[in-house]
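Go through this chain for my students:
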Amino acid sequence: PLRRQRQMCIRAALDYAERISNQEIGEDSLKGIYIYKSPDKVEYKEGEKLDLSGIEVRGVYTDGSEKTITGFNISGFVSTEKSHIVTVSYMEKTASFRIAVTDKKSS
């Protein structure tokens, strides 16, 4: 019985520490993300690589605050399609922006 009580106390302490840690970094309070500033480059020639220079992604939190997000993931960029939406994701939240791709021969 005493050993079980110790295990329960340790588990409760670890759970509490994890909750506090999550609150400090805002994991529990992130409501959504949005593209505050689009990348400088949104028009590409076929075959070019995605350039995210200038992009700013912000997180909106349940307390009304906003913070710039880093470490987000990008999906949906295909440099052979004419126009499509690129998706930004962070902690299961998503936002998107549109890009255009022209043929290599186009000027």
